[in-house]
Structure formats: structure tokens, C-alpha cells
Amino acid sequence: MHYIIKYVMKNILSTFLISVMLTVNVSAGTDGENNLSKKTKTTKDCFEGLNRASFTLNQGLDKAIFKPVAKGYRALPSSVRSGTSNALINLSSLVTVPNNILQGEFKTAGINTGRFVVNTTVGILGVFDVADKMGFPKYEKEDYGQTLGVWGVGPGCYLVLPVLGPSTIRDTAGSFLNALGGDPYYNASTHGNNEFLTTSQYVATKILTGVDFRAKNLETIDNLEKNSLDFYASVKSLYLQDRQRKIANKNVITNATIEVLYEGDWEEIEPK
Amino acid sequence: MLSKKTYTIISFLIIFLSNIVNVYSIEPDVFVQSTVNRAAKTLSGSLTKEERIEKLKKIASETVDINGIGYYTLGNYRKNITDEQIKQYKFLFRQYFLKSFSSRLAEYSNPEIEVISKKKINENYTLVSSILVSTKKRPEVKIDWRVYTKNPENPVIRDLIIEGLSLARTQKEEFSSIIQGNDGDINALFSTLKEFVK
Question: Engineered SS bond to A123: which of A128, A187, B74, B123, CB 3.0-4.6 Å?
Fold first, then answer.
């Protein structure tokens, strides 16, 4: 019975993913020009009413649950928090490395594999970032949504998912790939038939990742909310800019990407 | 034909004037570093929050092209509004910007910003890269400054790009959302701005 449910679920997920990919493909066409060299395109907010409703729900959940939990988490000793954060980042390498490969970044994939091996062993399950002390290059997370973006798939419409927060059709499809075999940690937890990992542990890890993120950004998010005229629009803009930057996949601060990403928007503005 | 004497005087004047421009032109990275030093001094001093905010507003008024950012933030809508509306918008945007900007910054204490490099994007813009040095509470933050350098002797800041996220662009999209949500009525934006600056 258990296997039948899993089989059916897998098929539902596959069907959903394929239909989403087909939808996304509509906006994935190219006219032969480099997208980045053109004026920044706006991602459509096709479901704005629904998205705003989800956003309000998420804000309610945040105030009632996530923020208080994040505040409690912040009260823990900083060594505990940084150890937890390191372990979660280390675990994310399991998704980052396949995506490095899919994006053709073989050298980075090698470096990230080395980092994962060192931190998991010497760094005791990633609690200590030994690789950083050894001089490994800075770690950048990658996911399947980013890979789809690198392959030229457009973001599709903007989405706000209940509990999970801002996304796009492409990025949501990318998240489904984790459950379809793209995340070794998910596979080992749910299909691994081992005595060490369970589905609930996987879910707990994901919740902890959310709490860790929220705790790191307590003041920033409060400040943004306080100074926004339309908080929903600010979060949407920041999410989409961040994804665009990550898909451009370079260190924005030190190379030319930023001028390509933003220059088109700055028409000649002469103070009147 | 110009006499030799007139020619010499004109040449001398040209050289003299070009030297003046050179003497007074300010390098964008030096400009940014001196601006952040001023702000850091304000934030690390023993001033009250209100005093800090007032000082930060003064620094922003002197170093940021608030009108320029205002026009950028309005996007295409600026092309279809009356002179009277522009005047009203300029007034409201300045108040909104100064309140929002100083309130965001006033939360920081003892910020240490190091300018790392600069890159000339084109004739009008230079991108200055800096880092907000990490503390025990927060990691290092990368901040880029889009400096408008059309008048080299008077550079002004037009955007802050924090970890790749442009504040001007965020503001532009936020304003656009408000106008669109009210069937393109720019007066809705004015009302929201008025409410914010109260």
C-alpha cells in the first residue's frame, strides 16, 4: 500500500512538473540576443490577488510562529547557531553540486564536493566550516530553479506560496525536482530504508533552515517592512532581483554583471 | 586674426580653467569613503536617535541626488504628469526619501565601511564597491554605490546596491505597484507618500 501511494505521488509530481515546464517554455523563447544585454524585463504577477492573499497569510504565520521562534533561536549561544547554520549550509551542497555540474561548472562542482567531504568528516557533520579555514573559495548555493534559469528558461509568473514564501513558476518547478530524485538528502530520508534518516528529519531540517534564515534577518525584515510603502511589492522586487543575480551566476560586486543587469534601466535622468 | 597677446591670454585662461576643474574634481571612491566616514561618525557618536536622524538627513541632502532618484523611481509615469504634479512629487519624494533613508541607517551603530575599488561604467556613472565589515552579530555585507559623475567636481550618489539588490530599483517597482494597483492614478502614490511622511 505504502509503495502504491508513493508511485501515485511520484506520477502526480511528474505530471505537474511537465505541465509547468510546458507553461514556462512559452516564455523561454529567445530572439537570438543575449537577454542580459537588454533592458531588464519585468516578471509578470499573473496571480496578484491570490499572491497577496498568500502573502498576508504568511505575514500572519510569521508574526504568530516564525518570528517568535526565530527570536528564541537567536537567544541560543552564537556558537550553537553558527554550528547549526554551518551544518545546514553543508547539507545544501548535496543539491548545489549536481546543479554545478548541470550548469557546466565542473571545477566548482569539484571544489564543492571537496568542501562537503572535508566539512562532513573533519568538520563533524558540517558543524565546523573547516574548508573555509583551509582556504576553499567562498561557497555559493545553487538549486534547480537557477539551473533552469541558466538554461534559458524564463521565470514565468511570480508566485507567493503559502508558508514557503516568494517564488516563480520556474523556481517552484525546480523545487519539485528535489523531490523527484534531485536531492540526495531527500532520497536518503524518504526512500533510503535506513535506520538513521526519516522523512520527519528531512522536514525538521527544512523548518530549521527557515528559522535560521529568519533569525539572521530579524532586523533587516523589520526595517524593510517599516520603511516600505507596499511591503508585498518590495519583497517581490528583492526576490526577483536576487534570483536574477544568482542566475547571472557571477559575483556581481566585482565584475561587469551589475552594469549589464541595471544599466538599461537608468535612462538619462537630468535633475529638473 | 587674433593678436599674439590675445592668443596667449586665451591659452593661459584655458589652461588655468582646466586646472581649476582638475583641482576640484573629486574621485568617486574618495567621495564615497568620505561620505560613509561622515555617516559612521554620526552613528557611532553619543547622539540621540533624533539627532542622528537629523544629521543623516543633512549628509544625504548633500551627497545624494534625491531629485534624480525621484525621477528614476517614477519610471515611465514621469512622462505623463503635469508640471504641478512634478512639483508636488518632488516635494513629497524628498521628504519620503530622507525619512526612509535616515530611519534605515539609524538602526546601525559603529558601521565600518571600506571602499575597495571603483569602475567607470560610462561617461556619467562610476560604480564604487565597498564592504560593510562583519561583526559578531552579522556577516560582511557588500555594498556598491552608483555615483553620477557627469559633473566631476560634484559627484552625487544615485543608487545603493546591497548584495546585488538595487534600492532604487526596489523603490521604483514599489511605486509602480502602488500606481498600477490604483488604475494608473498617480494621486494614489501621492496620498501614500503623504501618509508615510506624516
Answer: A128
Distance from CA of A226 to the nearest CA of B (A): 9
Q: CB A83: neighbour CB atoms within 10 A?
A: 19
**In degrees rounded to 5, what are phi and psi of residue A139?**
-85, 130
Residues of B in contact with A252 (CB under 8 A): 144, 161, 163-164
Name the residue with cell 546591497. Answer: B162
What ipTM was assigned to the predicted interfaces of this complex?
Answer: 0.80
Q: Please state, in angstroms and rounded to a whole number, the distance separating the CA atoms of residues A56 and A231.
A: 10
Q: CA A13 to CA A9: how far, in whole Å?
A: 6
Contact between chains at B166 and A228 (C-beta distance less than 8 A): no
Lookup: cell for B198: 506624516
Q: What is the CA radius of gyration of chain B?
A: 21
CB contact (8 A) between residue A228 and residue B67 = no
Look up the pTM and report it.
0.80
Interface A:B, Cβ pairs < 8 A? 98
- CA-CA distance, A236 to A110, in Å (whole number)? 34
Chain B residues in contact with A160 by the CB 8 A cut-off are none
Q: Which H helix or E strand runs over B186?
A: helix B186-197
Query: Helices in B64-185 by DSSP H: which ranges?
Result: 66-74, 83-105, 167-180
Interface residues on A facing B, Cβ-Cβ cutoff 8 A: 40, 42, 78, 216, 219, 223, 226-230, 232-234, 236-238, 241-242, 245, 252-254, 258-259, 262-263, 265-272
CA atoms within 13 A on the CB side of A146: 26
Residues of B with Cβ-Cβ distance to A217 under 8 angstroms: none
pLDDT in tens, chain A (272 residues): 444 444 444 444 444 444 444 333 334 333 333 444 445 567 899 999 999 999 999 999 999 999 999 999 989 998 999 999 999 999 999 999 999 999 999 999 999 999 999 999 999 999 999 999 999 998 999 999 999 999 999 999 999 999 999 999 999 999 999 888 888 888 888 877 777 788 888 889 999 999 999 998 888 899 889 889 999 999 999 999 999 988 986 544 444 344 444 455 565 565 44
